[in-house]
Design goal:
The protein has helices spanning about 5-35, 45-50, 85-95, 105-115; strands at about 35-40, 60-65, 65-75, 80-85. A four-stranded antiparallel β-sheet has the order 1-4-3-2. A hairpin with a 5-residue loop joins strand 3 and strand 4 (about 80-85). It is of the alpha+beta class. The chain has one domain (about 5-115). Helices cover about 55% and strands about 20% of the residues. Mean pLDDT is about 75; it is low at about 1-20 and about 115-120. Keywords: Signal. This is Lipoprotein SmpA/OmlA domain-containing protein.
């Protein structure tokens, strides 16, 4: 088997991995700028959350009677980012401002997390 295609394929795979890590790191920067707090998985509660929440996606939960948005990162920070509805809205706006999301994609993200109405329950 010729080595050039194999080397090219390996290089492409590494590039994809590097891009994915860069995208997650950029997303995490925006989460922090929006006010999300990283909660390291150093307690049994946060370790369980990190394992059970969808990875690199938002989940909405009620914590202490408040709607809370969670974003699990098991690879880079090994933490769960925690934010309020206002911080979630600020994050979506930062993504739009950075050209990483269109308004339509932001609404789709809201629908995915909050349900089709886009409103918290």
């Amino acid at each position: 088997m010729p080595k050039a295609p194999l080397v090219a394929a390996c290089g492409f795979a590494l590039l994809l991995c590097a891009c994915a890590s860069t995208n997650v790191a950029n997303q995490e920067n925006l989460l922090i700028r929006a006010g999300f707090r990283p909660m390291p998985a150093t307690t049994p509660e946060w370790m369980t959350a990190l394992k059970t929440l969808p990875k690199y996606n938002f989940a909405r939960q009620t914590i202490d009677g408040k709607q809370t948005y969670l974003f699990a990162d098991p690879r880079i920070c090994k933490c769960v980012y925690v934010g309020s509805a206002q911080e979630f809205a600020a994050f979506r706006q930062l993504m739009i401002d950075q050209g990483l999301l269109t308004n339509e994609e932001a609404m789709a993200t809201l629908d995915k997390v909050n349900g089709p109405s886009g409103h918290s329950e």
